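[09:14] KT: can someone run the structure on this one? pasting the chain below
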Amino acid sequence: MHDALFGTAEGARIRCGLCPHACLIAEGESGWCGARGVDEGVLRARTYGLVSSLAVDPIEKKPVFHYSPGSSVLSLGSVGCSMRCGHCQNWQISRPKGDDGSLSLRFVEPGTVVSMALAERCPGIAFTYNEPVIWLEYVLDVGRLARASGLFTIMVTNGYITAAGLYAFAEVVDVWRVDIKGFSEESVRRLCHVGHAQTIREQAVRAKREYGMHVECVTNVVPGINDSDEELRAIARWMASELGPMTPWHVTRFMPYLDFADVPATPIETLERARRIGREEGLAFVYLGNVSEPGGEDTRCPVCGVTAVRRSGFDVLARSLAPNGSCGSCGADLGIVIPACGGGVGQPGGDLPRG
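[09:31] RB: done, structure tokens below
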């Protein structure tokens, strides 16, 4: 058993301080996430090193568009989550039913993860598929070894974390790819059955301003819940003012699923409206996700208008970037980070045709 961080004794129970749930956990029980529990009077990281999914993915799949575009990252996840999203696409691992034999978990040593990334010529590692915040201790161990080996790390997260928890991750995380599921408390509760929408935003700002993480935001636009002009405008305005106008906003199409199987898919027109609102509020880069819309995933220079990165699905077809990530045509800053360890297609230092 692996001891967990942020456990504080309160009588016969242990309080977990990693996320806003602040679960008070009795002996033998688990917290809301199912990944952290109390055994022998100690808070344990019960899923430490237990991997449910592992693959080499395009970084664009996360989606991350402005950090090492065109590269591949070793992606892995475990089980459990700090939210109960009614439209979760990975509910089998985010809401595991226990020992029912439906999941196949294997233990992977932190060093093995880094060795696999290097063997696959991946410049980075992404913690994804389920919520990686609740995997804190394992992410720290993998992340330290990754840093020592010159690899970057990505958190694909719902951002549901305390200030103390984020501080712990700051040591090893380069990219904070965070879901902004809604702006109002009502919208977030309807979608995810949790509160603290403002806390999620505050920690995203802290990740960028205090810890220098690269931040990108995703909003899955669900009809009738978070698709109003007011809601979308509030998200875009907050991003532009608090995270900066260069922060990428991925507005993605919702598809009927799980608890929201009776909700219609997001119309393309709604995503285009969200993109227009984002631009009106000052965001330079608003991307359309989960749709095949010409130009919806391209990075266009806001100064000269050239297509600096052309994408189709998760593929980067061409790019016109300077070595520092600025526009290859006019030199304007695009907010794109090309880390020293890599920036090409599937391998450190690679490049794509300009155009």
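[09:33] KT: thanks! The chain has two domains: 7-45, 50-295.
[09:34] RB: yep, looked fine to me
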